[in-house]
Fold this protein.
Amino acid sequence: MPPLRIISRLDIKGPNVVKGVHLEGLRVVGHPGEMARRYYEQGIDEIIYMDIVASLYGRNNILSIVREATRDVFVPLTVGGGLRSIDDIVEALRSGADKVAINTAAIRRPDLIAEAGRAFGSQCIVVSIEAKRWPDGRPGWEALTDNGRERTGIDAVAWAEQAQRLGAGELLVTSVDREGTARGFDLELLSEIHARVRIPVIASGGCGGPDHAAAVATRHCADAIACAHIFQYEICPVPQLKSELQRAGIEVRRCV
């Protein structure tokens, strides 16, 4: 198994990085450029910039942030939020993104995944899945859109399989139930999806420390973890997380 990739997820609202719980109750935690540079210097493997209000307001203001980051951050950047068309993806890639993440637009028009994969290669198309347990108590999870605000009635695991068939190169799977809680990743959700697809899965939502990251690796239910809380509040900086994972026998990429 390749080394576990450690990714910093930066949720963007306007000019700021924000953090909440269950994708709600957002508070400002920092400046996106400064945080990206700090994580890069600490040895982060990748960075995800996610504009969490772009789909709601039908706009995308994140590309200036991406252009700033690419001046002195030299790890892969994934950009998501408000990308609704091939033209939007072109603009994101021209701004310096290495990959794009699509959710709301992909659920509304799944063929966008296939069109984007043909145009740019599946390696740079990430389908973002915001999953929440069904509110009526039935087994499984529902895929949500608009940063967890809108229900779709679509089964999240089945949607992951469809996204792969359509040409997604990677899946960013966020547990809305766990996001911001620091209670650990939803290993059951991740295991269900990872068992059904052959493309890489990024675990997101709930990491509170090295033990939670190690659980993903030992269960072999994701290929990467995206963390926000532990980095943004300096609970476990990037070098510490990598060191503790290595001590647990989990292979990670070395810090720069």
